[in-house]
Amino acid sequence: MTLEIRPVTADLWPLLETLFGPQGACYGCWCSYFRLEPRLRDALSRDEKKQLLEQATQEALPPGLIALDAGVPVGWVQVTPRAHVPRWNTVRTVSRPLDGDDPSDSGLWAISCFFIQSKRRGEGISRALLDAAVTHARHNGARIVEACPIEKAKHSRSVGLFVGSVSVFAQAGFEPVAERKPGRPLMRKVLA
C-alpha cells in the first residue's frame, strides 16, 4: 500500500465527503465533536455540521489530512492548533491543557480524531496519518503536539478508536503527561 497524504483544502473536499459518506462519519459528527460546544453541536443538523467542516477546508490552515490509496480516500486525521478544538480545552475534559499551558498558543497543537474507512481499519493507515500529522503540524509552527488516545477498545476495528490508540501514539514517540481518566492519557510530543 502506498498512501498519498494531503491537507484537506477546498479542492479535496469532495474526497473527504466521499470518505465520510452520507451519514458524515461517526454518526453524523462531521468532526464537530471537539470543534463545537455540546449545546451548539446538538442544535445543529447533520448538514449544518457538514457545512462547517467544508468551510474549514477553505481557511488558510486546513482542518486535517486525508489519506488516499491510488486516489481513493481511505482515512482522515484532524490536526489543528488547540485553539481550533475548543472542547478539547474545557476543564471537564480529559484532554484539557496542562497547568500553565495556554490553549490559544499557536504552537500548541492537537491531533483530536481519526476516521478510517471501515474495511481498511487495522492496516496501519492511522500510523501513516499520525506521522504525516506531526510533520504537517511542525511545518505550520507547532512546538508541541498532543493527543488523548484510548488504551483499549472493544476490538481493533472499533469506531471508538476515533481518538486514536495509545500504542500507535507511543510508537510515534508521544509520551503520557497526564491521565485524568483511566485508559485515556494526554500524550505529548515535543518537536525540535
UniProtKB/TrEMBL annotation:
Signal sequence, start to end: none
Annotated organism of origin: Hoeflea alexandrii
Gene3D superfamilies, A to Z: 3.40.630.30
PROSITE patterns in alphabetical order: GNAT
Protein name: GNAT family N-acetyltransferase
Taxonomic lineage: Bacteria, Pseudomonadati, Pseudomonadota, Alphaproteobacteria, Hyphomicrobiales
Family annotation (InterPro entries): Acyl_CoA_acyltransferase (IPR016181), GNAT_dom (IPR000182)
The N-acetyltransferase domain, residue ranges: 3-192
Pfam families: Acetyltransf_1
